[in-house]
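ok so for the tutorial part 2 we go from a plain amino acid sequence to predicted C-alpha cells. step 1 is just haveing the sequence, like this:
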Amino acid sequence: MIVLYIILGVIVLLGFYLVAKYNGFITLRNRTEEAWADIDVQLKRRYDLIPNLVNTVKGYASHESSVFEKVTEARANSINAEGKGDKAGIAQAENMLSGALKSLFAIAEAYPDLKANTNFLELQKELADTENKIMASRRFYNGNVRDFNTGVQMFPASIVASMFNFKALEFFELEQDDIAKNPVEVKF
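step 2 — the prediction. this is what the C-alpha cells look like for a chain of 188 residues:
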C-alpha cells in the first residue's frame, strides 16, 4: 500500500513539474513575442521618418538621386520583409536600410545649409532616438530569446519542450560585416 502511495506521489509531482514547465515556456514565449512587437513598433516609426528625411535632403542635393533611390528601395525591402514575418529576412533588410541611411547622412555632411535646417536637425534627432529604441528593443528581444532557448535546451526541461513542440528561436542579429556593425552616424 505504501508503494502505491509513493508511486502516486511521484506521478503527482511529475504532473506538477510538467504543468509548471509548460506554463514557464508559455510565459517566456509570450515575453519574446511582446519584445518582438516592441521592435516592430520602432521599425514602423523609423519607416515613417525616412521619407520625410529623404525629402528634406532632396531639396538640397537633388543630383544625388541614386542615394535616394537606394534608401527608398531599402525601406521598401524592410517593410516587405516585415510583412512576411521572417525575422532573419527582417534583420538582413534592416542592415541594408542602415547602410543606405549612412549614405544619406554622408551627403548631408556636404551641405552646410542642410545641416543647419531645423527640420532636418529635428528629423535627425528623431531618427537617432528611434535607432536607440530599436537597439534597446533588440537587446530586450534577444534576452528573452536567450532565456527561452536556455529553457528549451536544458535537461530535464528539454523533455517537456520536445513533448509540447517548443523549438529554439532565432536571435535578431546584425550581419557580421563592418558596415552593419556600426550604428547610423548622426551628426549635429
